[in-house]
Amino acid sequence: MKYQLEHCIGSRLRRLSRVADGHIRKFLGDYKITENQMTILFTMHELGRVEQGKIGEVLCLERSTVSRNVKLLENRGLVNRTMEYRPEIELSEKGFKLVAELIPLWEQATDVLVEMLKEEGLISIAKLEKRMI
């Protein structure tokens, strides 16, 4: 085998993502929302009414991941869907309220991660994104 498991780039990136998600979950407390769902809500907050596929493009998420999570958010009354041929989705009033509550918690979690990574780590992440995306 040319590489050992500890050299697997995808595995290492997913591990770092899980560690970061763990820090974020500590701040989300009893909201019963995943990091993917929170990110989808935040993206919808930024984009406004949008075709569901655009969410996947922006976040680099698989179509099935977006569909599953949007359906869960819709069932909770956080997202509205238009009835058009190519339906669009948008935050409901309840969704806007939740985003307003989550943003300060996410900012606190991000403060912790920024402190852990320091400027050098943040620059490294930006360079890695630029090369890969």
List the helices and strands and how they pair.
Elements: H1 9-28, H2 35-47, E1 50-51, H3 52-59, H4 63-75, E2 79-81, E3 88-91, H5 93-132
Antiparallel strand pairs: 1-3, 2-3
Describe the 3D structure.
It is a single chain. This protein has 5 helices and 3 strands; from the N terminus they run ααβααββα. The chain is mainly alpha-helical. Strands 1-3-2 form a 3-stranded antiparallel β-sheet. Strand 2 and strand 3 form a beta hairpin. Helix 1 runs antiparallel to helix 5, helix 2 crosses helix 5 and helix 3 packs across helix 4.
What is shown here, in short?
The chain is mainly alpha-helical. The protein has helices at 9-28, 35-47, 52-59, 63-75, 93-132; strands spanning 50-51, 79-81, 88-91. 71% of the residues lie in helices and 7% in strands.
Note the main attributes of this structure.
single chain; 133 residues; mainly alpha; Arc Repressor Mutant, subunit A; three-stranded antiparallel beta sheet; 3 strands; globular
